[in-house]
Design goal:
The complex is a heterodimer.
Chain A (H helix, E strand, L loop, with lengths): L2 E5 L10 H9 L11 E4 L7 E4 L8 H5 L5 E3 L5 E3 L9 H5 L6 E2 L5 E2 L16 E5 L1
Antiparallel strand pairs in A: 1-8, 2-3, 4-5, 6-7
Chain B lengths: L6 E7 L4 E7 L8 H12 L13 E4 L13 E6 L6 E6 L3 H6 L5 E5 L6 E5 L3 E5 L8 H10 L7 E5 L2 H4 L7 E3 L3 E3 L4 H7 L2 E7 L8 H20 L4 H4 L7 H6 L21 H7 L1 E5 L9 E11 L3 E9 L1 H6 L9 H14 L3 H16 L5 H4 L8 H13 L3 H6 L3 H8 L7 E2 L2 E2 L7 H9 L5 H4 L1 H6 L4 H18 L14 H10 L6 H21 L12 H4 L9 H19 L1
Parallel strand pairs in B: 1-6, 7-12
Antiparallel strand pairs in B: 1-2, 3-4, 3-6, 4-5, 7-8, 9-10, 9-12, 10-11, 13-14, 14-15, 16-17
Classes of the chains: A alpha+beta, B alpha+beta.
Pfam families (chain B): AFOR_C, AFOR_N
Family (chain B): Belongs to the AOR/FOR family.
EC number (chain B): 1.2.7.5
Chain lengths: ~130, ~575
């Protein structure tokens, strides 16, 4: 069964950023800005944390927006990224209604593969992978 | 510095609104944090000028492991302390270490004075922004404005001062990301003297992990991560938090209360960490890169008008705050303590020094050393409303008395009297432990007069033999120079033993042996003492106020002569180190 990443309980988040760091590590980078998921606060540290992940849409707007075939449908939801076809136009990121796609410093979109590596580094089990 | 052989220093000149970067290979041997910040202070300090002269520097440094290894979350600030008028060093967590790391900044040196109130935005460049409209605003309100006017939510850090810093209160702190602080020794006043209201740093640059290091890095990261999250080494900091100490310290006659008239507080149970957790704790948050989440947030609501009109306030608390703004001033329940913390936070004061100053003022008032003409209201242990007003008066320098109280209890007691019960050690207000010789000697001789310099209180609690105390203080002081240069949160000190430190450094391409680390620690401590000497400081000047010998500790009543001899013994060890 394919798996997808889900936010299980956003409210438990303590903002340690270990998940973002894990994703970046997998991508060969130390920097949390180089991750496919995002954790930030609404209204500063006294506000709640917002966890933005790929929602593994069945009918992905990002794929629809890509005119170059760089995003194809992923089994279970979400998309698969084909870097060789990407023109770095950013249309996918603009199309995502929850802003789950960020662009890396080279201009490529950072697309979640739903591998679940980040979930192993959440000390409060806020995120998890679910079989679909 | 990460996978490089230099320290990248950002120099900012507020007077001329200029900045430049330097890649300093010569600083690499100081690791980062305390080591680099002390060295940069030594280079840039102007001993002949006042601590608040525009030419004096503010230094920040993170370390080679910052954010890339678990719980390496702190930044060290060094400066010429306007409070003790000697070496100033303070540490803060939050997101600052991460934001510096991913802005490719290892250290910052700020000098000069802005032409009018300004704040800095450090992103791709350094922007000097107008802060005239924010001058006079609280820490909280300033934070909200900075947040609205800068990008990088989640990967930026925001520092700011409140009114106490603007008004040069010598123990004003700098707030970092709402719940963390460069609290001690007056960095906030140094900001204020430069008309620097705040600094926002955005850290969104990628930093590649070298392919050849990847495997090793992951292994070491995972092994430390597992120790942090799957063992009980750090559990105490997450569960009830450091305020778990309140009850045991009270039981062992070590909880400073009512201006250290006693170390057994009759209301200790009501302000215990357990009580806070049950009644007011609403959530916990973490510094970036820390899986523990020790920041305990308590909540209170206050009726500000008839008709069920409430405001709800979140404030962070820990042992030091519960002691200083709780037992030391006689408050009796979590809600009262949170309310006093809230005003201290808004004004941007150091919580420990403020609490100890209020404690001294209360006793001085009771004894008639100061009168209502000075205080403008009666002071009584346990009366919250007057203390809340007094905090505002300290922050704004309401009258001559509050201006003096805003320079600390050493200064105020020299002016008004009551030096015997002014609870400072080395000019810095005491922290929340009165455990024995380890605590009073440790705080007195500690290079920044902080309980975290050498943890003398912990040496006392281990019931160390008297003749071994000074040696242990010295060894711990030395060893912590490594931890605070890397800059590992001291709560993780048991995770990062020497073996782990060597492995962690190796995983990021820095090869050092045990003996090399020891040599580095010695050189860093020497650097601090060279600065102290330049500023005319000597361990000979230490005079421990009488109150510390009158009030019982875990190890009984302390003997003044014995304590003074211990200070001398420590001085001999420092003299030996400096040879």
């Amino acid at each position: 069964m394919p798996k997808v990443l889900r936010v299980v309980d956003r409210r438990r988040c303590i903002g340690c950023l270990s998940c973002r760091q894990a994703c970046a590590r997998l991508r060969g980078d130390y920097s949390p800005s180089n991750a496919a998921l995002d954790v930030k606060t609404a209204g500063g540290m006294s506000g709640e944390f917002i966890i933005t992940i790929c929602m593994s849409c069945e009918d992905p707007a990002c794929m629809e927006a890509c005119k170059f075939g760089a995003l194809t449908k992923r089994n279970g939801g979400g998309v698969v990224f084909h870097k060789d076809k990407c023109t770095k136009c950013g249309a996918c990121a603009r199309a995502c209604s929850v802003s789950a796609i960020r662009m890396d410093k080279e201009g490529y979109p950072i697309i979640c593969t739903h591998c679940g590596y980040c979930t192993r580094y959440c000390p409060h089990r806020c995120i998890a992978t679910k079989e679909v | 510095m990460l996978h490089k052989d230099f320290i990248r220093v950002l120099y900012i000149d507020l007077t001329n609104e200029e900045y430049r970067f330097e890649e300093r290979r010569d600083l690499f041997k100081y690791l980062g944090g305390t080591g680099v910040a002390a060295k940069l202070l030594e280079e840039n300090i102007k001993p002949e000028l006042d601590p608040l002269d525009p030419a004096q520097p503010i230094i920040f440094a993170n370390g080679p492991l910052s954010f890339v290894m678990p719980v390496c979350t702190k930044v060290v600030a060094t400066f010429y302390s306007p409070h003790t008028r000697e070496y100033g060093e303070s540490h803060a967590g939050g997101r600052l270490a991460m934001a510096m790391r991913f802005n490719n900044i290892d250290a910052i040196v700020i000098t000069g004075r802005a032409k009018h109130p300004e704040y800095l935005v450090i992103d791709d460049k350094v922007l000097f922004k107008d802060a005239r409209a924010m001058w006079g605003l609280s820490v909280e309100d300033t934070g909200k404005i900075l947040r609205q006017h800068t990008s990088g939510s989640g990967i930026r850090s925001s520092m700011r001062i409140g009114r106490s810093g603007e008004n040069l209160v010598s123990y004003a702190g700098v707030n970092v990301d709402t719940y963390r602080h460069f609290g001690r020794l007056g960095l906030g006043a140094v900001f204020g003297s430069k008309l620097l209201k705040g600094i926002v740093i955005i850290g969104d640059e990628p930093v590649k992990i070298p392919k050849e290091n990847m495997k090793k890095y992951r292994e070491v990261y995972d092994s430390i991560y597992d120790t942090v999250t799957k063992t009980d080494v750090m559990e105490k900091y997450h569960a009830v938090g450091t305020s778990i100490n309140v009850l045991p310290l009270n039981e062992m006659n070590s909880l400073p209360s009512l201006n250290l008239q006693t170390t057994r507080y009759e209301h200790a149970e009501n302000i215990s960490g357990e009580r806070f957790a049950k009644e007011v704790l609403v959530r916990k948050v973490a510094c970036s890169g820390c899986q523990i989440g020790c920041i305990h947030i308590g909540q209170f609501r206050r009726e500000f008008d008839d008709g069920y009109e409430y405001e709800t306030v979140n404030v962070s608390y820990d042992h030091e705050l519960v002691f200083a703004l709780g037992s030391f001033v006689g408050l009796k329940n979590p809600e009262e303590v949170l309310q006093l913390i809230d005003v201290v936070e808004r004004e941007g004061l150091d919580a420990i020094s403020t609490g100890v100053a209020l404690g001294w003022a209360t006793e001085a008032y009771k004894r008639g050393i100061i009168t209502i003409d000075d205080t403008l209201m009666p002071f009584e242990f346990g009366v919250l409303q007057n203390y809340m007003a007094a905090v505002h008066y300290i922050a704004t320098g309401k009258n001559e008395f509050y201006k003096s109280l805003g320079k600390g209890v050493d200064f105020a007691s020299k002016k008004y009297g009551g030096q015997d019960f002014a609870c400072h050690l080395g000019g810095n207000e005491m922290p929340g432990y009165h455990t024995g010789y380890g605590s009073i000697v440790g705080f007195s001789v500690g290079s920044r007069h902080s309980h975290l310099d050498n943890a003398g209180y912990s040496i006392d609690q281990a019931r160390t033999k008297e003749e071994d105390i000074v040696k242990k203080i010295f060894e711990e002081e030395l060893e912590r120079n490594i931890l605070t240069s890397l800059v590992i949160c001291l709560f993780a000190r048991k995770v990062y033993n020497r073996d782990t430190i060597i492995k962690a450094l190796d995983a990021v391409g820095i090869t050092l042996t045990n003996s090399e680390l020891t040599e580095i620690a010695k050189e860093i401590l020497r650097t601090k003492y060279r600065i102290k000497e330049k500023l005319g400081y000597s361990l000979d000047q230490i005079k421990i106020p009488k109150r510390f010998f009158k009030t019982i500790t875990l190890n009984g009543k302390l003997d003044e002569e014995k304590a003074n001899n211990m200070v001398k013994e420590y001085k001999a060890m420092i003299d030996e180190l400096m040879k």
